[in-house]
Amino acid sequence: MNTFEKINDRNQEFWKAQTDLLFKRISDPALYEVAVEEMGSEQRRGVPIYCRKNLETILEDADRARTRFSKLSLDEFARQGGSAPKADALTIFMRRLVAGNPSITESEVLRRVREHYEFTVNDEEIIFLDSGGREKSVPISGLKDRLSRIKKGTNSR
Q1: Mind giving me the DSSP string for 91-151?
Q2: Which of 6, 35, 131, 145 could be stapled to 58 by a disulfide with Cβ–Cβ 3.0 to 4.6 Å?
């Protein structure tokens, strides 16, 4: 087989693969929609025909972008899914109180919170530092709900 025949065979293999890829991409509704939108955009912007992207290039770019964005969104989901919300200082303190006395009342919890050095209590809220050292305030009216959630969680274990 001479050099020209080898080149011709490789050329046929290449274009066969490219044609198959084109048909695969064009049969994907999302890629097709992006391609039509891109071609229309170039036309509306007045891009000269000789400067416009051809269909194969538009489909290839759209496929590459979809792969990149799907990987990014999966990475972002993994990052978000890897961290559960952490209990704050008040919840941890209340869990200790409930562990020592499962029938503790809301007023008893409030009294103990007022006595504890980590918390500042005024008429409407409990103020303390979160794990990042930032000041956090919680309304006293929410103490009852916190206590019931903690008791419910303790009973289910």
Answers
A1: HHHHHHHHHH-TT--HHHHHHHHHHSTT-EE-SSEEEEE-TTS-EEEEEGGGHHHHHHHHH
A2: 35
In the chain, helix, strand, coil percent, each to 5?
Answer: 70, 10, 25
Band (pLDDT 50/70/90 cuts) for residue 82 is low
Is the torsion defined by CA of 132, 136, 138, 143 positive or negative?
positive
pTM here is 0.47
- Determine the average pLDDT of the residues in 61-71: 83
Q: What is the C-alpha separation between 10 and 34, in angstroms, rounded?
A: 31
Nearest-angstrom CA–CA distance, 85 and 88: 9
Q: What is the pLDDT of residue 133?
A: 80
